[in-house]
Design goal:
single chain, Enolase-like, domain 1, seven-stranded parallel sheet, three-stranded antiparallel sheet, 12 strands, 18% strand, globular
Amino acid sequence: MPPSADELPALDELLSAARVVVLPLSTRFRGVDEREVLLLRGPEGWSEFSPFTEYPDAEAATWLRAAIEFGWFETPPLLRELIPVNATLPAVGPEAVAEVLDRFGPCRSVKVKVAERGQSRADDVARVRAAREYLGPEGRIRLDANGAWSLDEAEASIHALAEFDLEYVEQPCATVAELAGLRRRVKYLGIPIAADESVRKADDPLAVARAGAADVLVIKAQPLGGIRHALAIVAEAGLPVVVSSALDSSVGLSMGAHLAASVPTLEFDCGLGTAALLASDVTARPLRPAGGAIPVRRVEVDDALLDEHRADPERDAWWRDRLRRCHALLVRGG
């Protein structure tokens, strides 16, 4: 299980190793053009603490627990050396689809962002159609709505997009009850429902499985408090899983790859190819997809890239204060 309070490294040890960077994105993604990341170096190697800035401390502390586990403790045994990954398509217009997907190389699966604020169902249809044309008939298309649809909107949108032969639809609605209702409504279409936010942002990440509200679980190492806790959820849930990332640097993707390499059964391509969305990374050997997969390995950062993307003093201080607060929560058993 994740490290207990008495196994945590001292705060001074974390702060002395901390490096805060701001990485530019090649394409605007979920409303942001850059990604702020705090990197830590522990006895096992580099690790990442990168909860999104709007997350409260109680939630962010779970991400810190994961970062400490990966940097200070041995990982579970690895069952595979390469992780097949999907390409990720932000909510771009159809004219930009090929340019974005070209950055991922020959991935057989694409996760298409839908339900973007300010866009219409017609925008989603046009984007998914362009992705299908890019992939050809053998490619796999999965959708991700990030819980933005109501139950009725989700049902209507899935009907409108079903013609594109969907692999599954990820977090179409926000609540477990809505997911369960939608799953009943669209079951006859043969399109599985996957849960993401209902796992990683839930007080009880297994509630969605117990409610029969999903066919697939999307798991992420940082939001679930580390590789071991994520594996425990997988074992208890008894559902197929997709290991994904949260727009991490290659250091965070390495954590995700180690999780994917430890899962007993991996039926789906994983959402760990998102280094292709970064205009720059923290390593000279980023974990970008090659031949539709990424390797399972620790990442060594490049000092020149750390200096190039160093956060300004105000943002550096903000992240260090956040680290202090989250560490205090973990020490108290939070």
